[in-house]
Predict the 3D structure of the following.
Amino acid sequence: MAKKPRIVIIGAGMAGLTAANKLYTSTGSDHLFELVVVEGGDRIGGRINTSEFCGDRIEMGATWIHGIGGSPVHQIAREIHALESDKPWECMDGFSGEPKTIAEGGFELNASIVDPISTLFKNLMDFAQGKLAEDSAGSGGDACYYNSAAKAALKDCTSNGGFGNQSVGAFLRRGLGAYCDSCKDREELNGYGEWSRKLLEEAVFAMHENTQRTYTSAGDLFNLDYEAESEYRMFPGEEITISKGYLSIIEHLASVLPPGVIQLGRKVTRIEWQLEGHKSIQVPNGYDSRPVKIEFCDGSFMLADHVIVTVSLGVLKSGTGQDSGMFNPPLPPFKTEAISRLGYGVVNKLFLQWSPNGNRPANDKEKFPSLQMVFHPPESELRHEKIPGWMRRTASLSPIYNNSSVLLSWFAGKEALELETLSDEEIINGVSATVSGLLPVSKHKKEDKYNSREFCNGNVESCDDNGVRFGKVLKSKWGSDPLFLGSYSYVAVGSSGADLDTMAEPLPKLGSTDSDHHPLQILFAGEATHRTHYSTTHGAYFSGLREANRLLKHYRCVRI
């Protein structure tokens, strides 16, 4: 009896389980294939990891459905009733309400300062992402400042022959400079201490840049390619979180698979494939003709006809480096060069429990504000010395929903990596010093309990009646987790959308002489293999479908 083709999927995240679900549920394919999903960790979900903290449902990884119009994730969530829950969950009321923008030193900024810079930043990003045409300038008023700034930045960036190797960071800073030049005759601000108008505008702009860093995972926006930015696509409609947790989507995809298909704790150390010719592999009972051998950290191995690799770009970067041998023979240069050029960053989330007076729950008059934090640059002599550097490049500290006792901050780049190394006490002290530096009592009304300068460590028993106590801490550690080595991909300066297409190329390439003996030995899926939806869960979903359909088409059991 002929053996069924064995398909091994490496990784039980969104891409891997979408591929497994498609392969298993397609008509007749459960009898055609032998399907195995191997996962190096002790759970399914990959970079989706729903958890609980202080009674609230939270997401340690993927958080948002980025646009509900046409999103397959939203469609699944709706079909399985995952958008309804009696239990409170992260961002259940959408984005936080009207934020308070506070500048270092305790100065609350009014809309006349914040809104123009926020609009400028949005317009510049819209230009970069292709949402605004160069001829879409507003008619008069402040709109002409914003659009002329974007146009000036475009002209500056293209003056040397186009956008080759230009960064989003450079474009944004040129836009800010052009804006400041166009309205430099405005009168100086009063009542903001040593903050000048220019310093405040630059700091508010930097706050938005820090938010953008967490959106893209680029630790430095000067590493984010400008030209590729316009290829990225989002679905229309609102962005929402999933009431029952993102993990409900993963569990739904996995639910159709028979017991034993998903194998946890099987960390892959090496993938041997056959670039030329066809050799049978020796096994205990003789030889096996399957072309791919997958070796695991416990010394065991598995043979396969096809392997769908869904590990993160970070793991691929580590596994294809000069001193690594994840693949044997090594991946061809066209593949490794794309892996090397593309960007892959770290984004971490920090959750903190707070209470206004010891452990007593907050009442309606003691809500923690949704803070947008405006800091002096790290090198400035005006900076508050007790505010740690890793806090200076986070943009916000906000309750995860209205009245929640859980606060959330996002971190990217080296600050996200530093966060992973800090103890809970160091984090509490750092956040306390930051809030203290932003909200001194002297600048606010006494009845605003959260504005006390007596924000203090949860371990300090001498907090007075006006003190706010930070208690429990929970943080993600995507950068140091060996199964991920980061969070998600971006198109770095020097790479392009074409590299994302290259990431999706199977090996051996169909049509090559090497593919004649046994094609499609190694296939690649995951968010970093989708040209227009990279960095997203729906991009990972689409890539899993793509590779499953590639194999189904190969075996002529689906109409594409």
